[in-house]
Write a structure and sequence with these properties.
Layout: H1 24-30, E1 41-47, E2 53-55, E3 63-66, H2 67-79, E4 84-89, H3 109-119, E5 125-130, E6 143-145, E7 148-150, H4 151-168, E8 172-175, H5 182-192, E9 199-200
Parallel strand pairs: 1-3, 1-4, 4-5, 5-8, 8-9
Antiparallel strand pairs: 2-3, 6-7
């Protein structure tokens, strides 16, 4: 009979994982992950105007900022060592349409905000959300035809939106629309437009979101 002490796959009582968890120094040696400022992305919310700061009631302590104040916030983020910010706009209802055409306007709020932050020459990545919901009157992420969100036609528009944002200086495209095939479509469009180094950020966590 094989001696349990010499088993090739030892278990309790020979293996006692609490040994390495007993002291602070040993826990620090063996822990797998460490959260630091390098893991953070700061979501920022931009609005029209100058010197404007508006509280968001559903998110206490969070404000919508006009572009000039957003640049100051971006500078503070860079000074703190935060690697990137993610920009989300509040669109004037007058600029919304059923097909979300404002998303393709190179002078829209997001593009102007990106250019302003890039002009500040900060060591900071800029992430842009790619989806049509900020720009559509119906609030859907995609184009609606006969009361149905159409997938492939939406992909074409999302790809155009991504290129518009890349031209403004966006470093990372973050598609949140949930259309099938949008990653390949966006990647193809970015590469064809001469932006092979623009990154794409996964929103996979949405699957586990509440």
């Amino acid at each position: 009979m094989t001696d349990p002490a010499f088993s090739p796959t030892p278990s309790f009582p020979s293996v006692r994982m609490r040994r390495v968890r007993r002291w602070d120094w040993s826990r620090r040696l063996v822990r797998e992950n460490r959260l630091s400022v390098d893991d953070l992305i700061w979501p920022v919310f931009v609005q029209e105007g100058t010197g404007q700061r508006t509280s968001i009631s559903s998110m206490p302590g969070v404000e919508r900022l006009s572009i000039d104040l957003l640049v100051e916030a971006a500078r503070a983020a860079a000074d703190l060592g935060i690697p990137a910010i993610a920009i989300f706009p509040v669109t004037d209802p007058a600029k919304k349409s059923p097909d979300g055409d404002e998303a393709l306007n190179p002078e829209n709020l997001v593009c102007r905000a990106v250019r302003a932050i890039k002009a500040a020459d900060l060591n900071l990545g800029v992430i842009c959300d790619v989806a049509l919901d900020p720009y559509t009157t119906h609030g859907q992420d995609g184009l609606v035809r006969d009361d149905y969100v159409v997938n492939d036609e939406t992909l074409e528009k999302l790809s155009q939106q991504a290129v518009v944002q890349a031209r403004a200086g966006c470093d990372v495209i973050a598609p949140s629309d949930m259309m099938d095939g949008r990653i390949a479509a966006v990647r193809t469009a970015l590469d064809a437009a001469g932006f092979p180094h623009v990154l794409i950020l996964s929103y996979a966590a949405k699957y586990a979101s509440a």
